[in-house]
Amino acid sequence: MNSVPELPTDRRLSLILLFATTLFTSASLMFVLQPLFGKILLPLLGGSPAVWNTCMVFYQSILFLGYLYAHTLSTRLSASQQILVHASIILLSVLALPVGLPEQVTPPTEGNPTWWLLSTLGLAIGLPFFVLSTTAPLIQKWFAQIGHHSSHDPYFLYAASNTGSLLALLSYPFLLEPNIGLAAQQTDWSMGYALLGVLIAACAAMLWRNRQAAATVTAASADTLPWLTQLHWLALALVPSSLLLGLTNFISTDIASVPLLWIIPLTVYLLSFIIVFSKWNDAIHPWMVRIQPIFLIPFIAYAFINPADLPYWAYLILHVIAFFLAIMVCHGELAKRRPPTQYLTRFYLIMSFAGMLGGMFNTFVAPFIFNGIYEYPIMIVAALLLRPGLPLALNRRLLWQLLPPILLLSVGLGLYAGVGNLLDYFDAIAISLMLLTCAVFFLRKQPLGFALSAGVIIFLSLGVHSLSSHTLYQERTFFGVLAVRESTLTDEQGQAETYHELFHGTTKHGAQRLPAALSTIPLTYYSRPGPMGQLFKAYDAVDQNWHIGIVGLGAGALACYAKPQQSWTLYEIDPLVVEIASNPLYFTYLSQCNKTAQMRIGDARLSLVQEPDHSFDLLVMDAFSSDAVPTHLLTEEAIKLYFQKLKPNGILAFHITNRHLALKKVLSIQAEHLHLAALLEEFTAPDNMPLVVATDWVAMAKQAQTLEPLQTGLGGWQKMPLYFDMRPWTDDFTNIVGIWK
C-alpha cells in the first residue's frame, strides 16, 4: 500500500497576514463599490427603491457566479493553471478602471429600465466586481494548499473577509462620503483595486512555490457529499439572508424610516460571520442556542402581542437582539458543519447561492404575494425550525410536536369566527397570548413544535392588530407599504367623527375629513393656517393663471388650493399613490377640487427634465416628509434644474418636515451658494385645530422681492439661518451624517 508522504508545515505568521490582508482588502473594496456606484446612478435613475433592489440582485448574482468560478477553477485545474487563468481575468478587468458609467449612456425615457440597468452595471463594474467575488473562496482554497500548519482549516480567514466588509460598510457613510467627493472616490477605489491585484499576485506566488505539494491534495468526488447535508447548508444560509432584508424592510416600514438605520442589521449580520468562523464559536454557540428561546418570550410579547408605547430605538434594540440570536444560531450551525478543505469552495458556493435566493425572494417574490412585510415573521419561524435537534425523518415523535401548534391555531381561528367583536376582548386576548408564549418556552427542545407554536402566536397577534388599526386598504409595491386607515375624531361635546388617513409605513402622508362641508379643507402639513395656506393666500391676487407643479401627491390635499384658470401638474413616483388618491372610496380631494390636473408618474427629477423651460410659476417639492430622503432632489444640480423650469419670478417651495434630519441646513447652504432668496417657516400647530400639525417649509426665489408677500403676511416666514460647516450638496457630494438633528 502506497502512503502519501507527510507534507512539510510552515509556521510563518507572515503567510497568514498576507492571505488575511488580501481577503480584507477585497471585501472592503466590494462593500465600498456598492454605495459608490449607487451614488453614480442616483441622478440618472432617481431614488426609486426598485433601482436599489435591482442593483442588489445584480450584486448577489455576480457573487454567486464568482463563487461558482472559484469552485470550478480550484476543482478542475492544477495550481499553475489556476494562477494563469485568474491572472488573465484580473488583467482583463483592469480595462473597466476607473469605475464609472460608460460614455453617452442614458436610461430609456419610457418603459421599465431594469434590463438597461443590469446591462449598464455589467459593462461598468461587472468584471471588477466578479474578481472581488472570487477572492474569498479562491484565496482560502489556495491557503489550504500552501503547506502552512493551519492550512487544514482555513475558514478562520473568512473572519478577515467579513471584518473588511464590516469596516467598509461603517466607514462609507461616516468617513468616506462626508469627506471625499464622488470623482475622488472613483480614483481612490481604482488604486485600491490595483493594490488588491498585487496582493493576489503575492498569494499566487506562494501557491506556485508549493504547487507540487498542492498537487498531492486531490479533491474528493462530489458524489461522496450527501445531498441532505448540502440542503442543510442552503437552509442555514438562506434564512439569515432573507431575515436580514426582511428586518431592514420591517424597520423602515413599521418602526421608523430613519436614514442609515439599514446599516445596523447588516452590521450585525457581518459580525455574526466574524464570530462563528473564529476560534470562539465552539464556546459561544451553545450559549446562543440556550439564550434564544429565553429572549423570544419578551420579544414576541412586546414586538407582536402588545407593543407598548416605546420610542422607536427601544423597538429597534428588541428586534436587532432577536435577529442577532437567530442568525448566530443559524450561522453557528453552519460553521459547525463546515466540511474538510476539499469541499471548501462547494461550501461557499452553496452559501452564495442561498444568499442570492434569499435576496430574490424578498425583492421579487414577497412584494407580489404579501401586502405587508410578512416575510419577516415567516423567516423568524424558519430560523427557529433550524435550531439543532430537528428530526429529519417522519416519525411518531415528530407528529406529536405538531399537536400544540394545531390546537393553538384551531382555538384562535374558532374565537375569530365565533366572537362578535374581538376588540372588546383585546386585553384578555393579549394576556392569553403572553401566557401561551411563556408556555411555548417549555417546547424549546422540540424545534418543530417550538417554532410552529411561536409562529401561530405571531400570526394571531398580527391578525388582532390588523383589526384594531381599522385598515380599509393595504397594498405593497417596490416603494413600500401603503395603507388607508379610518380614525375617529372626538370634539369637545363628545361627538365622534370618522376621517381617513394615508400612511406610507409609519409616516402619515395626508388625511381627510368625511363630512361634505369639511371634505375640501386641506389638513395635516397642508392646512390653511400653515405655511402652504399662507403662501397661496399671500399670492391670491396674482396667481389666477399660474402653472403649478407639485412633486409628491400624498392624499391630494394641495389640490384644494387650485383655481379654475390655473393649470396643475402632479408628479408622483408610485402609481399606487395615484390610484389611492383618485379613489373616492378613500379620498376625494382630487375629484372634488382639481379634476383637470395632469398626472406624471416617475421620478420627479427625470420627469422635470422633459418639461419646457420657464413654464412654471410655482414648484412645490413635497418628497421630503418621509424620513427616507431622496438626496438627489436636494443637490445643486437639482435646484438649478428647478429654476430652469421656473419663470424668472417663479417660486420654489420645499416641504422639509423631518424627525431626524435638519434639511433646512442643506437648503440654506444651497441658497447662499447659488445666490437665491430663501425664507423658512417652522410652523407650530394651534391646540384647538384638529388634524392641523406642526410642519416646516422653505420658499426660494431668484429675487428677494418675489418673496416679500410672505414676509408681510400673518405667518412666521423668516430668513434662513446661515451655516458654514458643510459643503453644498452636489451630485458628486452629499453628507447625511452632517445634518442629523
Automatic annotation (TrEMBL):
SUPFAM superfamilies, per database record: S-adenosyl-L-methionine-dependent methyltransferases
Its signal peptide is: none
- This one is known as Spermidine synthase
Q: Which domain of life is it from?
A: Bacteria
Which Gene3D superfamilies does this entry report, sorted A to Z?
Vaccinia Virus protein VP39
Starting at the broadest rank, the lineage of the source organism is: Bacteria, Pseudomonadati, Pseudomonadota, Gammaproteobacteria, Methylococcales
Transmembrane domains' residue ranges:
12-38, 50-70, 82-101, 113-134, 155-175, 190-210, 231-251, 257-277, 289-306, 312-331, 343-362, 368-386, 398-419, 425-443, 450-468
Keyword annotations from UniProtKB, A to Z = Membrane, Polyamine biosynthesis, Transmembrane, Transmembrane helix
- The organism encoding this protein is Methylovulum psychrotolerans
Query: Quick one: a GO biological-process term for this protein?
Result: polyamine biosynthetic process
